[in-house]
Amino acid sequence: MTGTETDKGRKKILVVDDSKTVLLMECMILKSGHYQVITASDGEEAVRKAAAESPDLILMDVVMPKITGFEACREIRKLKATKSIPIIMVTTLGQAADVKTGFQSGCDDYVTKPIDSATLLSKIRDFLGE
Fold first, then answer.
1. Closest Cα to residue 18, out of 77, 88, 90?
2. Does 114 sit behind a cis peptide bond, omega within 30 degrees of 0 on the bond before it?
3. Cα 1 to chain center, whole Å?
4. Are 88 and 106 spatial neighbours (Cβ–Cβ below 8 Å)?
5. I need a surface site. Which of 9, 38, 59, 102 has the fewest CB within 10 A?
6. Terminal CA-CA length for the chain
7. Does residue 77 surpass a pLDDT of 50?
8. Is the pLDDT of residue 60 over 60?
9. CA separation for the pair 91, 37 (Å, rounded)
10. Which of 116, 112, 108, 119 is nearest to 98 (CA)?
11. How sure is the predictor about 31, in pLDDT bands with cuts at 50, 70 and 90?
12. Who wins on pLDDT, 108 or 10?
C-alpha cells in the first residue's frame, strides 16, 4: 500500500505476517482505528519496508519464511533509522521461552493469537501516545 492524501496525519503501522488471512484481519482491525497500514509477508521484507517506510509501529509475526520475526526484530534494532520503532510481536508462540526470546530480540510487547482486537488496539494506542 502506498500513501495518499487521505493518509496524511494518520499513524503508519507495518503489519508483518506470512498468512494472508491474518494480514487481512489485522488490516481490518487497524483500519477501524483509522491507521495507515503497510504490509510485509516475511521477515526480510519487514526489515526493508521498516527502513523505507519509517512506520510509527510494527506488528510482527514470528514464524515466517526467509527470516523469523525474532531475527527481523534484531535487524530492525540494528539500523539507526528504525531502532526506536515500537515492535509488538503478534504470534501463536506463547510459551514462556518464546516470550523471553521475543523481548531479547528487542520487541516492546508480545501478544498471542488468536488476536483480541480491543486489547491489540489498546496496546497500539499506548505505544503511539493516543
1. 90
2. yes
3. 15
4. no
5. 9
6. 23
7. yes
8. yes
9. 18
10. 112
11. confident
12. 108
Pull the grid cell for residue 106: 528487542
Task: Give me the amino acid identity at 30.
Answer: L
* Interatomic CA distance for residues 48 and 56, integer angstroms: 15
Query: HEC states along 41-101?
Result: CCHHHHHHHHHHHCCCEEEECCCCCCCCHHHHHHHHHHCCCCCCCCEEEEECCCCHHHHHH
d(CA 83, CA 126): 19
- Using an 8 Å Cβ cutoff, are 35 and 61 in contact? no
Out of 13-17, 22-26, 104-108, which region has the weakest mean confidence (pLDDT)? 22-26
- State how far the Cα of 40 lies from the Cα of 13, in Å rounded to an integer: 11
